[in-house]
Amino acid sequence: MGIVAGLDSSSEFTRIVVCDSDTGAVLRQGHAPHPTEGAGASEPGRQGGVDPQAWLLSLGEAATGGLLEGVAAIGVSAQQNALVPLDPQGATVGQALTGTDQRGQAAAADLLDLLGGREAWAGAVGCVPGPAQPVTKLRTLARSDPRLAERVGLLLGANDWLVWQLLGRPARRTTDRGTASGTGYWSAATGSYRPDLVELALGHRAVLPEVIGPAEAAGTTPEGLLISAGTGETMAAAFGLGLAAGDAVVSLGASGSVMAVHHEALTDATGTITSLADATGMHLPVVHTLNAVRVLRGTAELLSTDLPGLSELATRSTPGAHGLVLLPYLEGERTPSLPHTAGTLAGLRREAMRPEHLARAAFEGMLCGLADALDVLRGRGVAVRRVFLLGAAAELPAVRAVAPMLLGTPVLVVRPADYAALGAARQAAWALGVSRGRLTPEAPPAWGAPDAQVFEPGDEAAVGDAVRKQFTAVRDQTHPGAFGGQGQGG
Question: Fewer Cβ atoms within 10 A, N terminus or C terminus of the chain?
């Protein structure tokens, strides 16, 4: 059918993959860092901001050497939560807002009070404002620089702005469900904006981009190049991985997240679940934890080793860590909601006080915490038949050994690749196929599954259940009612 490209503009780089539109085979690739000189990066502790022209310069650098020659369509993904405020004529007002600062916490709390609490926000848009969300960035801008805020007449996400630039800044401005669902002023449940929430945050209403379907084209360049709808990095990565109903993703960063494909938006009055839309017409409920790899790093420092060394130590221990249980709430915790707590090490006996048992307890504690988050989704009827494990820590042998038994499903560790760029390319192939009558808006191109190693629970499932029961007993004794009596885990 042709050749397509997907570009992902992350917080630091632009990555481009050029693919065969029928098979998804990668034909060539390019990447370039965003220029920093004159980009306007804010000082530490201040709301992050950059000149979005840096994204275009990076894109141009990544596409040098004829990388896009013969390409018929382009898809765009970009960093989540970035917001580009524009005046009514389309000029950038100040900088693109990309980061968070100390003022974001106060702005989020302010928004909670203004609308009437967490339940009101969850019912309105499926999420509770956090410091990084665009709606909170608007509130921060309105509080810190009212004159600048008054000039804002149009709001675009980072990928929306890039799509608009590629199309030559037409009168029509578009976005997709995925990007819109993360703004804090669009509801995945109703499929509609809440412009009153923009007014609540900014002080006045602003023009918002048209939300188009997953297979729709945002437009065509004067040269005839089709530009698809675009989406956020999370949704693009899910599409690039080929996630479908029954698939979940556990991401291991300093903090953690669990998301899964579901057929409907989930409204959660506590705000534990963030209700996002995906890039296919389905939904991506997400549950976040504050503690993941930071638990491993802290334990490694305590034992004077590194992560590979910690993993090697843990493999010398046995399931249950000789009775040691680490509640991994080192930075407080979001799931369960324990913002002011600390971690707990329980089960100390003389025979358990060995480095290998503490190392094992760290891996089990981190993964039990993420299993609790996964159970939040399961408890709302989300099917989880297999888990994709993402992040550098997924390469650690101890993670691969412990995760299947504690998560209770086959665990897939995929080969590292630019999955967000691949998802953007797949979206471009979908829009191209629909425009040529080769595909329908209901079915994206069937690209091959990513290369992955599969780790099965096997005979260890019962052992994993016992470890989780041990963790749950300590958690419920230390923090009674942490999950509101929902019986999370074990």
Answer: N
DSSP state for residue 41 in the 8-state scheme: P
H or E element that contains 309? helix 307-314
First to last CA, the chain: 50
Structure tokens at 27: 């034909």
Taking residue 443's Cβ as centre, other Cβ atoms within 10 Å add up to 12
Q: Tokens 């502790």 — which residue?
A: 45
For residues 379-408, give the mean pLDDT.
97
Structure tokens at 179: 């990007």
Q: In this predicted model, what pLDDT tens digit does every residue of 440-482 receive, in sequence order?
A: 999 999 999 999 999 999 889 999 999 999 999 999 999 999 9
- Say if residue 33 is preceded by a cis peptide, omega within 30 of 0: no
How far apart are alpha carbons 175 and 193 in whole angstroms? 12
Give the 3-state DSSP-derived string for 462-490, with helices as H, strands as E and coil as C. Answer: HHHHHHHHHHHHHHHHHCCCCCCCCCCCC
Residue 358 to residue 349: CA distance in whole angstroms: 12
Label residues 142-152 b or e (16+ Cβ within 10 Å = b).
beeeeeebeeb
Cβ-proximal residues to 176 (8 Å cutoff; 6+ apart), any chain? 211, 212, 213, 214, 229, 230, 231, 235, 279
Give the CA distances from residue 8 to residues 13, 84, 86, 379, 426, in Å, rounded to whole numbers and listed in that order.
Answer: 8, 17, 22, 34, 12
Distance of CA 456 to the CA centre of its chain: 25
For 49-131, where are the E strands, in sequence order? 49-50, 71-78, 83-86, 96-97
pTM, entire model = 0.93
Rg (CA), the chain: 23
Mean pLDDT across 315-329: 98
Helices 118-125, 102-115: inter-axial angle, 10-degree rounding: 90
> Any alpha helices (H) in 89-174, and if so which ranges?
102-115, 118-125, 134-144, 146-151, 158-166
400-410 per-position pLDDT tens digit: 999 999 999 99
CB distance 370 to 256 below 8 Å: yes
Structure tokens that stand for 209 in this block: 């981009």
Report the C-alpha dihedral over residues 390, 392, 393, 396, rounded to 10 degrees.
110
DSSP-derived secondary structure for 337-370: TBTT---EEE---GGG-SHHHHHHHHHHHHHHHH
Instruction: Give strand pairing partners of 5.
Output: 18, 74
Rounded Cα distance between 284 and 207, Å, is 26
Spatial CA neighbour of 73 closest among 229, 238, 179, 180 = 229
State the pLDDT at residue 108. Answer: 94
